[in-house]
């Protein structure tokens, strides 16, 4: 079950990459709109306004498509093979799902007209209640339905993956053989998805109330809630389940609900981007959303963990420092610029519970401090790029300078705490293994280049050969593998390929951390396995 949840968490990353890219575009055009940075003449120039309008239209459409993007990502990610068929089928499922819900709503007299605020006010309802009821519904791809957001997409994606994995190899009697295999999947979708729609029609109002209640509870918890979020998110890093927590906060009412320019928006990242695109953003709404976003990560990603890398370098044995210098420098720069921290974290979280808990506590504290100080820096990257575009270049209203002040303290704290714990407890961070544990030139496995042509072959050999590999996948920093037997994996050889560490989940599932080079490693391994 844990493996399936981890795989599910990975599927949620697909839409996130699109939204982050859209957010970066939005951040750049918002800078062009700021007269204090570019001047009144430039900011109000017709061509600039046209560019800004075009980008905002694109970004708005991407957020409107989030539910179906999640549906496609989940269906194709959870499908074991023939993923393109799952992607084709889930679009059919998504449309039918909402059409059926809309049909049942219409039978009960609920349409876009009868649930509009104006109609409800004419019926004698008060303003607050009218807005509340109207916001429970929306038009999805032109179909009137419940406002389910990404939950609807995730539900449809999971059901499609289930049907696909169960029936994509189904063989029918000879007379109906044309409809066998992959052709049978969309047929089963058409037959079964109306029942899922009917169940959702009955259950969703109660589920929606519960989710909104949870979101309200988190919202009322203030800075304590953000501390718990930051602390839990870092503790979950080794399991990969942090992706699930992140996406729930970023795209569902658990991360908050707000009305921006007359439209109801749910999820911290969605609210932030909608506010950033608004001509007159409400600062309180913006700050409430960003407390769950990158402002809480900059202190330890940009400042703390690079300092921890320096501490690991300084505590490495003198003879080993040249060996680990390049690896630690690359890991530090990756965290500093992009916010990808796992190459650093995997160097200590499995060998030092003290450092792991310290790191998680400092992450929670960072979220807490940014909330208390009213910082307003958003997006979902976490490195210097996000800090620059969504903090420094946006102006002083973001209070980005407070992040820098806290970050300096974090750099000092991380360096001295890591240095003290590593030396005091003899933690075997990179460069501190004994001679017997170090791999010498004579005992190094063959095939030695991280970037060479035989990278895929070397990884495959380290994993026990082609016959031991069942499934290959990857997320933003890890290879996620299903093997026949994880006990025969050669960890020393994997390190030769550039791996920063491995996580053996059970006898069949393993994750190999590569950081920013994971796409290259996954591609090379897939090509090698196909030979």
TrEMBL record:
PROSITE patterns xref list: PTS_EIIB_TYPE_1, PTS_EIIC_TYPE_1
Show the NCBIfam families listed in the entry.
Answer: EIIB_glc
The molecule here is called PTS maltose transporter subunit IICB
Keywords tagged on the record: Cell membrane, Kinase, Membrane, Phosphotransferase system, Sugar transport, Transferase, Transmembrane, Transmembrane helix, Transport
Which residue ranges does the record annotate as region Disordered?
431-453
Q: Where is the PTS EIIC type-1 domain?
A: 1-434
Query: Where is this chain primarily localised?
Result: membrane
């Amino acid at each position: 079950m844990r493996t399936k949840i981890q795989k599910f968490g990975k599927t949620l990353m697909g839409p996130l990459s699109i939204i982050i890219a859209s957010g970066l575009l939005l951040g750049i055009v918002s800078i062009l709109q700021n007269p204090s940075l570019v001047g009144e003449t430039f900011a109000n120039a017709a061509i600039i306004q046209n560019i800004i309008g075009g980008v905002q239209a694109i970004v708005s459409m991407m957020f409107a498509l989030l539910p179906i993007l999640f549906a496609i990502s989940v269906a194709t990610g959870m499908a074991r093979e023939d993923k393109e068929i799952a992607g084709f089928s889930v679009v059919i499922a998504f449309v039918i799902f909402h059409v059926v819900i809309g049909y049942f709503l219409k039978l009960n007299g609920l349409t876009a007209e009868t649930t509009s605020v104006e109609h409800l006010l004419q019926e004698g309802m008060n303003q607050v209640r009218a807005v509340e009821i109207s916001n429970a519904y929306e038009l999805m791809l032109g179909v009137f339905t419940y406002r389910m957001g990404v939950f609807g997409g995730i539900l449809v994606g999971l059901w499609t993956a289930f049907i696909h994995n169960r029936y994509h190899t189904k063989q029918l009697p000879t007379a109906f053989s044309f409809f066998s295999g992959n052709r049978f999947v969309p047929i089963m979708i058409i037959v079964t998805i109306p029942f899922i729609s009917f169940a959702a029609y009955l259950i969703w109002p109660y589920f929606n109330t519960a989710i909104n209640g949870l979101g309200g509870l988190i919202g009322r918890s203030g800075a304590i809630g953000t501390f718990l979020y930051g602390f839990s998110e870092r503790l979950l890093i080794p399991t990969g389940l942090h992706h699930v927590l992140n996406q729930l906060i970023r795209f569902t009412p658990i991360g908050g609900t707000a009305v921006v320019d007359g439209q109801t928006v749910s999820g911290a990242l969605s609210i932030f981007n909608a506010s950033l695109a608004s001509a007159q953003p409400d600062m309180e709404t913006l700050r409430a959303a960003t407390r769950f976003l990158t402002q809480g990560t900059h202190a330890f990603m940009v400042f703390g963990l690079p300092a921890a890398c320096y501490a690991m370098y300084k505590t490495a044995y003198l003879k080993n420092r040249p060996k680990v210098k390049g690896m630690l420098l690359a890991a530090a720069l990756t965290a500093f610029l992009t916010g990808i921290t796992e190459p650093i974290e995997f160097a200590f979280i499995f060998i030092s519970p003290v450092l792991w808990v310290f790191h998680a506590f400092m992450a929670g504290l960072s979220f807490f401090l940014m909330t208390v100080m009213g910082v307003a820096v958003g997006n979902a990257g976490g490195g210097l790029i996000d800090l620059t575009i969504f903090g420094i270049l946006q102006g002083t209203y973001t209070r980005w300078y407070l992040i820098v002040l806290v970050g300096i303290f974090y750099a000092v704290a991380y360096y001295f705490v890591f240095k003290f714990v590593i030396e005091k407890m003899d933690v075997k961070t990179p460069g501190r293994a004994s001679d017997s544990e170090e791999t010498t030139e004579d005992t190094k496995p063959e095939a030695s280049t991280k970037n060479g042509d035989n990278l895929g072959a070397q990884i495959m050999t380290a994993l026990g050969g082609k016959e031991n590999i069942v499934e290959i996948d990857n997320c933003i920093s890890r290879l996620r593998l299903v093997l026949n037997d994880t006990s025969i994996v050669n960890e020393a050889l994997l390190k030769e390929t550039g791996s920063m560490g491995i996580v053996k989940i059970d006898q069949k599932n393993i994750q190999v951390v590569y950081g920013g080079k994971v796409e290259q490693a996954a591609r090379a391994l897939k090509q090698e396995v196909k030979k």
